[in-house]
Structures are given as C-alpha cells and as structure tokens.
Amino acid sequence: MRTAATIKNAVWALIYQLIFCLLSLVSRKVMVITIGAAGVGLNGLFANVLTMLTLAEMGVGSAIVYHLYKPIAEDDRDKICQLMNFYKTAYRAIALLIAAIGVALIPLLPKIVKNVDYQNSYITMIYLLFLVQTVSSYFFAYKRSLLEANQKQYLITIIDLIFRFITVAAGIVILLATKSFACYLISLIVLGIINNIFVARKVDALYPYVNKKSSLPKQEVRGIFKNVKDIFIGRLSGKVTNSTDNILISALVGTVQVGLYSNYTIIINVLTNVMEQLTSAAGGSVGNLLITEQGDYIDIVLKRLTFFMFFIGAFCTVSLFCLLNPFVSLFFGDQYQLGIDIVAVAAGNFFLCTMRAPLWKMLNVSGLFQKDKYISLAGTAANLIVSVILGLKIGTLGILIGTTCTIVIQYVLKIALFYREFLKLHCLRYYCFTLFYCLVLALETAATYFLCVLVPASNPLTAFFIKVLICAAVPNLLNLLLFYKTSEFHYFKDLLKKTIKRFA
Question: In this structure, how many other beta carbons lie within 10 angstroms of the beta carbon of residue 464?
Fold first, then answer.
C-alpha cells in the first residue's frame, strides 16, 4: 500500500513539474520582454525575502504533520479533528504575525534593492503585493497537510496543475496587455486564493469530520510547541541556505545580477521541485514506515531512495552543467549568460540537495527535532559567514560556495544523527555509499562535458540539441553500466515491471 501510494503521488508530481517547467519558461520569457532584467530581479529578490518571512511559521506545519501520522494510521478521527482545529488557529495567528513583520521591514528595502531605476514608492508597492500573496495562503493552505499525511498528495497536485495553467495564461495575457508588474501580481494573488479554496473544499468532501469543533488538550499543545521550538531552528537553517542567495547577491553585487541569476534558477528550481515532489510523494509512506518498521529495514529503504534520487539527480546535474549556458544564450540572449564557474557550483548544490532529500524526509518524521537543531545552527552560521566573506571578494560565486558549505556540513552531521539516534546503526557504510555516488557524478560530468565541447558551434540550435542527446546518453549509460548488478537497481527494475503490468 505504501509503495502504491508513493508511485501514484510521484507520477502526478512528475507530470506537474514537467508542465510547470514549460509554463515557467514561457512566463519568464514574457517577463523579460515586458518588465526587463530589473523587474525580473525584483521578482526573484522579493520572492526570497518573503520566503524568509515564512520563518514566522516556526515549524508548526511540520510538527502538526508529524503528530498526524499516528492518528491517521489508527483512524482516530477525534484526534485528527483536534489537530486540524489547532492548526487552523495557529496558522491564522501566524498570518497576522507575518503581515506585521513584513510591514515593519519596509524601511529596509532601499538597503537591499540596489542599482535599479524604480522609485521607492513603486518598489514598496510591489513588495506589499508579494506580502499579501504570502499572507493570504495561510488562511486556507493548512488543510493540505491532511492530504499529505494521508498519502493523497496527488489530489493536491492535480488541483495545483489546473490552476497553474490558468495562472500562467492569465499572467501572460496581463503582462502583454498592460506591461504592469503590479497587475500581474494581483492576478497571482486572486488565483492563489481560489486554488487554496478548492483544495480546502476537497479536504472537506473527503473528511467531513475535520470541521467539527474540537480542542486539543493543553498537555498535547505544550508537546507540539516543544517540537516547534526545535523545528524552528531547522527551518531557519533551510531558509538561510535556500532563500538568502538572492538577498545577498542583491545587497553585495546588485539587483540586476539577481535577474541574471534568476534565469538560471528558474530551471534549477523546477528540477529541485521535481526532486522534492518525488520525495514528498513518499512523505506519508515514510511516516508510516518509521512508525511500523525496525531500523535495519528503514536503512534498506533509505539506501533505495538515495539510489533512486542519485540516478535521476546525476542525469539532471550533468545536464544543468552542460546545457544551462547554451540554453540561456538561445532563450534569453548571450548578454544574460553567467560564468561556467557559477554554473558548476549551482549544479553541484542542486546535486547535494537531491542526494540529501530522502534523509531529510526521514528526519522530519523521526521526532529528532531537539538534537537536529544544533546541526542546523552550525550550518546556518557557516552559510552566512562564508557567503558574506566570499561574496565581498568574488561576488555571486562566493555566495553560492557559502551555500555549498552549509549543505555539506549538515549532510555529514545529520547522517550520523539519524543512524546513531534513530536507527541505532553505524553510518560508515552510508557515508561510503554517498561518497561513491559523488565520485561517479564527477566522472559522468567530465566525460559528458568533454563530448559537448567537441560539438561544432556553427549552428547554435543544432549544437544545443546534439548536446541534449549527449547529456541524455552518457550519464544514464554509465549509471546502467556501474549499477545494474546492485540490489537497489534490481529493486526498482522489478518495481517498474510490476507497475507496467498493473497499468497494461
């Protein structure tokens, strides 16, 4: 049952992200044409600023989802109802807190928005629209957690996919007709609210008992908040790692540079979301796994998931390194290209985030929040220190290297924590497991890049498609050659056969 639910969620997640990628590229092209690099830079910058503001959520959502797994497994409807009512109250309070903090940050905007010709009043207006978009989501989005914990993530994906089509189409029409960034953002706000309402209505239809008035005992509320305090540190680290790059680039290098880098991150983020969605598809199943199974079997499942993420992630990483600059040159123009060193570090960060995703998912439902927070703090400190020091010296490249340091430090330490405290097993084999994957990636990247360099550049479009074929062939063939005898490969081969038979 867990495997079937994971596959169903994963298939829909993959469909969504592939379509999302195409729609995002079209939307970004229209944005570049209508509002220019400075407007695109503001978009990327404020998106990151508001992501940082969601720290006010403090990890309430993660704590609630963690507490939902057991009552869902036991079909304890009263407890589910109590948790969801608490969740609703907490999220509405959080929405007001984010709004207050967001307004308080307005005087700081001139400090981080650099080298653009917009008036301060216009910058403030755009920022407030981003703030409204973020705050409004908290009034309805909390019900999504019940579907996620109940292994029904695919229902959210289907609804989101429909609204993504509508949102992109409406945004493109508005940008082309008005060339107004503000009108574009207003359309995102309205359609985002409607999207969340549809999800909430679906939850109400599937679980009508969820709207029953019921209060969580004070003792359990205190237990949740104890976890929240520890989760918050982890969320802080995650936000610093993933959401400060654009802020630091804007403050240390310039807002226009954010626009240039955003043309790269739109592709990287789509692939990152694909990986996250694949992991999230297994979220409910992983929660059930950690409650019902023993350490040795969980270790096997973790290695299988890590192998799966490596197999896909290696192909994506090699493709990012070899194809990002040619793609940006073709789609946006040569003037929008960044150095290959920046592309290399960005692709490497993507790979590391992909590799760590299964471990992160298991840690999030393991209950090790208190001990995990110290690792998160260490990573956060390393990121800020290295990013600022190197950012001042070598610009965007240095800021991205700071992110790399954080990911590596946290990955190494969290592996040890999970194996020692939860699985009660030694972690050396998993370290070797992961290191070998990194070495294989280095080999595949070098071989693929060497072949791509040999492609004649007389016709850029033809050369790009030849490079696409090389990137599709080399890393995947090498992976098949190196791993076809492993137990992990055979597991997924057999699973694929069973899945094909089921749908045939």
Answer: 18
Contact (CB, 8 A) for 13 and 274: yes
Dihedrals phi, psi of 179, to nearest 5 degrees: 50, 30
The percent helix, strand, coil of the chain (3-state, each to 5) is: 90, 0, 10
pLDDT digits (tens, 9 = 90+) for 215-263: 777 777 776 766 666 666 666 666 666 667 777 887 788 777 877 888 8
Q: What is the average pLDDT across 317-346? A: 90
The torsion angles phi and psi of 96, rounded to 5 degrees, stand at -65, -35
Name the CA dihedral angle for 266, 270, 271, 276, rounded to a multiple of 10 degrees. Answer: 130
C-alpha dist (Å) from residue 241 to 211, 248, 279: 37, 11, 19
Question: Over pLDDT 90: what percentage of the chain?
Answer: 21
Cα of first residue to Cα of last residue in the chain, in angstroms, is 19
Give the integer Cα–Cα distance in Å for 449 and 426: 37
| 40, 31 contact by CB (below 8 A) | yes
- Is residue 413 exposed (0-12), middle (13-18) or buried (19+ Cβ within 10 Å)? middle
The residue ranges of every structural domain in the chain are 1-229, 293-504
Q: What ranges make up the beta strands (E) of 234-336? A: none
Instruction: Give CA separation, 431 vs 413, 414, 438, in Å.
Output: 11, 11, 11
pLDDT of residue 79 exceeding 60, the answer is: yes
Amino acid identity at 376 = S
Per residue in 24-64, pLDDT (tens digit) is 777 777 888 888 777 877 887 787 777 767 665 556 666 66
Q: 463 is written with which tokens?
A: 């050369």
